[in-house]
Every structure is written in C-alpha cells, then in structure tokens.
Write a structure and sequence with these properties.
Number of domains: 1
Largest sheet: 5 strands, mixed
CATH class: Mainly Beta
Radius of gyration: 20 Å
CATH topology: Methylamine Dehydrogenase, Chain H
Helix content: under 10%
Number of helices: 0
C-alpha cells in the first residue's frame, strides 16, 4: 500500500502518507465499523464488522516447499522465518536495542532502521538521523549503509535513497535532502533538495515518484519529479502500486472501475477492468513487471465498508484478470500480499490469533495453480512475517 516516509512520534504503529502500501501491517479493506455520516449531518448506526470468512482456503503447503520470509516486529532485530516449519534464523550485524527495527523493501533486498524516538507534541516532526542497514535477499548478515531520517527504494538494484531532514523539522512544511547510494554506502550521484512537503515514494527510471507527507482528508498527491530539472512531468491520485518502471493508480469510479497502468519507459498507459462492482485497495507488480496483483474489495455501500476482500492477478499484456482461488476473506480482515523475489510466486497472509499468541496463515500461489496452498505458522510474540511493501 509503503513506504517511504518516516514512522514518527506516536505513529510508530504504522502511519505513512498516501493510500499505497502504508502501515505496519496490511490494513483491512476499509477503516472498519463506525458511525457513518448522513447527508443531514446525523450519524447512522455503525455497520457490523465483516469478519467472515476469517481464513483463506486451500490445500496444505508441502513441508518441502520451505518458503522463506523476513520476520519483523517488536523482536530485538529482523530474522528469517521458514514456512511451514516456523523455524527462525537470526540476521547478524544488526545491533540489538530496546526498541525494534522498521524494514523497507528495495530491489535486491531490504533496508532496516531503528524505530525513531517518539515526539508526542509533534507527530510530523523529523527525528534525528539513524543508522541504515542493508539485508540482501536470503542473506543472514546485514551491513551498515549510512544514516538518514528515512529511506526509499531506488530504481537501480542494490541502491537506496537516503533522505534527511533537520531534526525537529515539520516534514509537511520542510524540504528534505536526498542522496542515492549503493548498498555499500557509496554515493551514486549528487544530493538533491526535495520539494517542500514531499517525500520519495519510489525511485523510477523516469525520475522520483514523490508523495505529499500530509494531505487534507487523505487525498494524497503523487508527482513524478525530475531531480535534474526540478520539474514535475506527471501527477497521479490514488496510486496503488509502483516500481522502477511502472505506476498503477485507480481513478475515482462508481460501478465499473479500471486500474490505470503507466509504462514509464514508453509513456504508454493501459487499463485493467475490475470484475463486477469491485474496487482495488492495493497492488503489487511482479518482479518482472508482467503481472499486477490486486486486493479487490466488494460489497461496500455508501452506508458501510466493503464486506469481502480477495486477491486477483492481472496479466498486463492482455488486461486479463484472474481470481486467486481461496483468498476471499471478510472485508475487515487484513490481507497482506506480495511477490517472492525473482519469481511469479505470490505470497499472502492473514493473522489467526490475538496478541500474545501470534499465529499466521501463509498462502502460496502461482499463475496456473488450480488451488491455493496454505500453512499455519507461529512467530515470536509481537512479530510478524513481512509479505507486502511495508514498512514494518
């Protein structure tokens, strides 16, 4: 949905701007039950939570599958989680502190950074720059890159943007300084001063995709910005997925909805028609860019949120949308999803148990599979598998 502005102050649970990949865990399909405002200003009766089905359905994941996922959360440092065995493997090179690490995906791996200290008086104020570490896909060792207020994925593999603000600055009215570096910490170009009030969402081959740090009523503006000329070349609303080469967004719609996809190299845009009266809350491009996984939400009305969430995969060359079997859950059930590196293997998860007894249902699917494969796995207390684009 994240993934590139800092998690600050009391928002350590997962605040981020915009509507795409934002949050410590995947959000439910809607904000949940609550009083719904009527046109006359009065409040309607809260809608009941849509919590059924609570689990995905499919065949057991073979033990030989050995899916490997990064584990984040309140443990001392990130680790690798083996599914379905539940075995964990520590990652060396990350100092252990009383607080935990937040993790972001980049091409070829992950960056890890300590959660910043809280500031209850200023939720948008930048904390001091903190060390940034790099974890390569599958590696059991981390290495320090540098320091930053926040990081963002670069267009090139094994590269990252380090963004810094003056400590205490209100990030919604300040301008950050961005530097692209390799995962060894080598500068890959000059420093750039970002436009006031914007942060980097994703480095692309056509410039930096920026997003407002704060926006009225959650309507976040995304801009494709050329740091060399300091000009905006394209603007978007409601971005649901982005990569180094593509951007997907969902314009406002009623009834039949279409996801728009822009190929940044050619400048050509295409549309993916969503089935029925569904809408898309999040998306994720496959590593090769040929597929777009979508979180489809349906059953919502003006009086209440979506009643179901499910996954589908669009083949971008044809626009065909394929439902991922067995992934329908209640609209208030958080359904995280993402692609395994270098593959067309789609991973999804939902939480099974409450605080103190963390258990997750992990699902695996590839195009052509007739059924979903699922497994239940436990994790250390207050930790979770990293499935989607985070941060965590």
């Amino acid at each position: 949905m994240a993934c590139v502005t800092v998690v600050v102050a009391a928002a350590l649970a997962g605040y981020l701007p915009g509507g795409w990949h934002h949050g410590g865990r995947a959000a439910a399909g809607a904000a949940g039950a609550g009083a719904v405002a009527r046109h006359d200003g009065s409040a309607a009766r809260p809608e009941p939570l849509a919590t059924k089905p609570a689990l995905m359905t499919g065949q057991p994941l073979p033990r030989a599958a050995s899916v490997r996922l990064l584990l984040g959360g309140q443990q001392p440092a990130p680790a690798w989680l083996q599914v379905p065995s539940g075995r964990t493997e520590p990652i060396r090179g990350l100092p252990e502190y009383a607080t935990s690490y937040q993790v972001w995906p980049i091409a070829g791996g992950w960056t890890a950074q300590l959660y910043p200290p809280g500031n209850a008086q200023c939720g948008n104020c930048a904390p001091p720059p903190l060390p940034v570490y790099y974890i390569a896909d599958g590696s059991r060792a981390a290495s320090r890159i540098g320091t930053a207020t926040v990081t963002a994925p670069a267009a090139a593999p094994r590269a990252v943007w380090l963004v810094s603000y003056r400590t205490g600055a209100d990030m919604s009215t300040a301008a950050g300084t961005a530097q692209e570096v390799s995962v060894s910490g080598t500068a890959l170009g000059p420093r750039f001063r970002l436009p006031i009030g914007y942060v980097i969402s994703q480095g692309t081959r056509a410039g930096l995709l920026l997003v407002q740090e704060q926006a009225p009523e959650g309507h976040f503006q995304y801009e494709l910005w050329d740091p060399g000329t300091r000009r905006v070349t394209r603007s978007f609303m409601n971005v649901i997925a982005a990569s180094a080469t593509q951007v997907a967004w969902l314009p406002a719609c009623a009834g039949s909805c279409q996801v728009h996809v822009l190929d940044l190299a050619s400048g050509q845009a295409s549309e993916v028609s969503l089935p029925g009266r569904s809408t898309a809350g999040q998306g994720a491009f496959s590593p090769d860019g040929s597929l777009l996984a979508l979180l489809l939400m349906a059953g919502g009305t003006a009086a209440g949120p979506a009643t179901t969430n499910r996954l589908a995969v669009a083949t971008l060359a044809t626009g065909q949308v394929t439902a991922v079997p067995g992934t329908t859950v209640g609209g208030d059930i958080g359904l995280a999803f993402g692609w395994q590196p270098g593959s067309h293997q789609l991973i999804a998860d939902v939480t099974v148990s409450g605080p103190g007894q963390p258990e997750w249902q992990i699902a695996v699917w590839e195009p052509g599979d007739a059924r979903l494969s699922t497994a239940l796995t436990r994790t250390p207390d207050q930790s979770w598998p990293i499935i989607d684009q985070g941060p965590y």
